Amino acid sequence: MHPRNPSDAAVVIGRFQPFHDGHLSLVERALEAAPRVVVVIGSAYQARSPKLPFTWQERAEMIRLALPEAQRPRLHCVPVRDRFDEIRWLADVHHAVADALGSIEASPAPKLTLVGHARDATRDYLDAFPAWTLLRADEVPVRRASRMRDALFASPDEALATLAGELPPGTIDFLRAWSTGPHFEALAQEAALLRAYEASWASAPYPPVLVTVDCVVRCAGHVLLIRRGQAPGKGLLAVPGGFLEQRETTRQAALRELDEETHLALPPATLRACLRATDVFDRPDRSARGRTITHGHFFDLGERELPGLRADDDAAAAHWTPIGALAALEDQFLDDHFQMLDHYLGLLPAPAAL
Q1: 112-116 and 75-79 as β-strands: parallel, antiparallel, unpaired?
Q2: How far apart are the first and last CA of the chain?
Q3: pLDDT, tens digit, for every residue of 184-208?
Q4: In degrees rounded to 5, what are phi and psi of residue 211?
Q5: Would you list the DSSP string of 186-254?
Q6: Residue 131 has what DSSP assignment?
Q7: For residue range 130-183, what is the model confidence (pLDDT) as tens digits?
Q8: Helix axes 21-33, 56-66, angle to 10 degrees
């Protein structure tokens, strides 16, 4: 039975990597609160990584499998990409929910309920939808999804046996089949590398916060990209960048990384004169390597002839890519590098006003 004055629809937001019993409890609570439920699947167009191993379509399938068949028609899964600008992300969520609800959203003021639970600071978005009723649900005691992924990549059969009490049966079946598929082995190898990387910091007195620089370089309708030659993200596209060294400023580090990875054929003085903007990209989970804050540097070289390049260091290749081709490559970028490019180059249209 639904409440006497139910909401027109309920909304659940998450990444669901993978979909576990804690997520299922939110969806079930949403189904109790409203006749229709929209599940917003975040980080929808990211490249596969040990942190984000499943496509949004695969996550939607896990969610569907977790529900009784009679309930599935009431559920609508919608993808939403990550954004550097939170205001644009919020607008994306509003539009995705409106599109999913269709005729309901045509009413003057549909009643929407957002279902969630506050686990840490990354759940601040629960308070970012003031027009929606917030329903804070009780938490289900399951381990974090990151620990589930670690266990899965270390030993899938053992993990699925151990996690049987924390994952819906449909998720267990999905993961068992997925772990024999074409993506698992490479992701498992990268996950092992990242676990070793994390272990190397175990003796630090405080959890490490790493500082990096990244460079978006535009020239004559093109942008400078590299193809990563090493894990994490081996084979993925990225903007040039790397770690800050002890005795340099972030600007000095940006110029050094440009030279080391691409040997961009321009003098440092010219590059300094072409620096147009710097921004801090500090979303806590932006990097697979842990808490990493990067300083983005945007260089606009104007309409000059494309300078020469030579890939080196972490870059297996360096090339000028037409800006118009970037949107189609969104799911091939490391971490949040596509969001950096969108921030500086305006690759994706701004959401229309609601």
Answers
A1: unpaired
A2: 32
A3: 999 999 999 999 988 888 888 998 9
A4: -125, 130
A5: HHHHHHHHHHHHHHTTTTSSS---EEEEEEEEEETTEEEEEEE-SSSSTT-EE-SEEEPPTT--HHHHH
A6: T
A7: 999 999 988 889 999 999 999 999 999 999 999 999 999 999 999 999 999 999
A8: 70
